Amino acid sequence: MAVREFALPDLGEGLTESEIVEWHVAVGDMVTLNQPIAEVETAKAIVSLPSPVAGKISALHAEPGATVSVGTRIVTFELEGAAGAAPAGADSPSDSASAGAEGDPVSVTKADAAPERNSVLVGYGPAVESGKRPTRKARTARADATESAPVETAVEEPVVARTKTTPPVRKLAHDLGVDLTSIAGSGPESVITRDDVTRAAENRSTDEAVASSESSTASGSVAAGAAGSGSTEAGSTAAGSVQRPSRLQDRPREQRTPIKSVRKATAAAMVSSAFTAPHVTEFLTIDVTRTMELVAKLKAGGTAASVLAVLAKALCIGVARNPSVNSRWDAEANEIVEFGYVNLGIAVATPRGLMVPNLKDADMMTLAELTEAIGTLARNARASKATPASLNGGTISITNVGVFGIDAGTPILNPGEAAILAMGAVRKMPWEHNGEVALRDVMTLSLSFDHRLVDGEQGARFLTDVGAILNDPGTVLTMV
Known about the structure:
Number of helices: 10
Radius of gyration: 29 Å
CATH class of the largest domain: Alpha Beta
Order of helices and strands: EEEEEEEEHHHHHHEHHEEEEEEHEEEEH
CATH superfamily of the largest domain: Chloramphenicol acetyltransferase-like domain
Distance between the termini: 67 Å
């Protein structure tokens, strides 16, 4: 019986650690090559970790929620027969067993730290279908300590709720101290949603407040009886104040959340960007009535279209005419890198924090392709399916603050990019049109740029090019 130690592999893109979100396997389970065995969360995305070998899980060395550094042992496999032979350069079975002893330091070789040559790279492996994650088999009480195969039964494990929700919701439940097994899911197929968890936490807080109120009232009554009638009025006042809690009393007095994963990475990136690149923001308010009419007409004709996609297309055209906004400041090489392609970042608000996945070669896409691609990109980000590759390599970004009803802002640059364009809300406003005042669709664009790379004139020319297209989409014929 050969033993194979598996260490957390290098997930690429400069990431050095990951958090174990959930194990899809348990000690005693048999797994096949490339079978998803865990979900791990990097600073940028949640990805599926495939098994590097086929064999039996003999030990799991990290609990869900633990942050593990690259190269740290996380799983021990038992391999049988020829298929269990250790790969070239790996420790011998006896060495692995010795290194894996409880309390002993673990030495993981390079061969052990990386997946097998035939395994799929992390983040690009076989996806687990939504709502159809592998269900662990029930085992006898001593299954973990014996060599016998797991005993199958027709009864699922008690932790059914773990297969009825998503990792972000499980994390929220953990942070709020909510037991998922006590909640009835309101989502499709009884999936537990964020609202279900939040509601359960609020109900628990309310119950605690009521219990506290009853306790305080009882104490007040005892004190009133002991002190005599002179304290009755004070006791009534105290009881009355307890019975009228403020809205804030429905929430914990303090709630502490560890700073990690996306929030930690976003904070570090924004601080670095704000104090490294000299930001300048320019604003342009424009009449987008014709763009709104174009989008409505395309949708009526069955063509996919959105105002955001029109803005993305206009941005790509503006970049071709003003390439300085699509560049990067390379301090190490003492060079300015100007890109001949557009990897367009789309800022997406997700339950895990702000993410900016990007569309590769967005400048080569049609309006319909941009509409579909942006929708898919946003859905994947919100569902924690964005891959590390999609979150790196952006050259310029768009953020849609208008979806929150905001007119304008001063967006912070995505690190390594020269510009970011904010799209404000579209509002009906009185506007000069054909020499008269008319009610028109109006929007404000906000362009933040790195003043080391983009001069004020260059930023203004780019912004007016984009604005001209949104004002009159036909203007594009004079630009390309």
